[in-house]
Design brief:
The protein is an alpha/beta fold. Strands 1, 2, 3, 4, 5, 6 and 7 form a 7-stranded mixed sheet that branches. Helix 1 crosses helix 5 and helix 4 crosses helix 5. It is globular. Bound molecules: inosine 5'-triphosphate (ITT). The site of inosine 5'-triphosphate has 20 residues, from strand 3.
């Protein structure tokens, strides 16, 4: 098993990394498993910049392979908010039931065809030599009318991927991973790592 440190403080992301990457031959360690207690400022303007900032900081502290994920929800009706501010929207420690309710309220008057949204995931991987791989993937969908489902985390109860009727919080793990922004990005990363023999 190839070891990778997950450069994130979000336990739900670590669970998804582990779930998607371990069948592909990778052992994912959380930052706390690796004894790294760094707080990295997300000062970038894009998902990609923030993923790189997180990966680079944890790589500097550890010197081993790291993977960072910067992700969020873009809601078209409100100019792609909360976007890179998804974790900080309505305050960092505000419960997601409140954040989700705030988005539903903003879309109260939105006609069905203007409820489009997407989850975005920027992955940044750095190998022990310092080589960098960046991958961006999205999961297109729309915003539901009510919060539904108890699986997943964050904005899952209000997001319905295209061609379906369930929110990602109503899906089981396999169903979410098959269509999610993070599932697509991590599978694409694993393919790149297979192809690049020097990694
Ligand atoms: P790290 O920066 O330590 O990785 P974070 O939670 O602050 O943790 P982000 O800055 O990337 O991570 O914020 C992403 C937010 O977007 C996350 O907290 C969720 O609210 C939301 N999000 C991302 N992926 C999601 C998913 O699969 N399901 C639901 N919400 C998601």
């Amino acid at each position: 098993m190839k070891k990778i440190i997950a450069a994130t403080k979000n336990k739900n992301k670590v669970i998804e990394f582990e779930r998607i990457l371990s069948p592909l031959g990778y052992k994912v360690l959380s930052q706390s498993d690796a004894g790294i207690e760094l707080e990295v400022g997300e000062t970038g303007e894009t998902f990609e910049q923030n993923a790189y900032l997180k990966a680079a900081a944890i790589f500097q502290a550890s010197g081993v392979a790291v993977i960072a994920d910067d992700s969020g929800l873009e809601v078209d009706y409100i100019d792609k908010a909360p976007g890179v501010y998804s974790a900080r929207f309505c305050g960092k420690d505000t419960p997601y039931s409140v954040k989700n309710a705030a988005i539903l309220e903003k879309l109260k008057e939105a006609p069905e065809e203007r409820r489009t949204a997407r989850f975005v995931c920027a992955i940044c991987y750095i190998n022990p030599k310092g080589d960098v791989i960046k991958i961006n993937k999205t999961c297109e969908g729309k915003i539901a009318h009510t919060q539904k489902g108890i699986n997943g985390f964050g904005y899952d109860p209000i997001f319905i991927p295209v061609n379906g009727s369930k929110t990602t919080a109503e899906m089981n793990e396999q169903e979410k991973d098959a269509v999610s922004h993070r599932g697509k990005a991590l599978r694409s990363l694993a393919e790149e790592l297979e192809l690049r023999l020097d990694f």
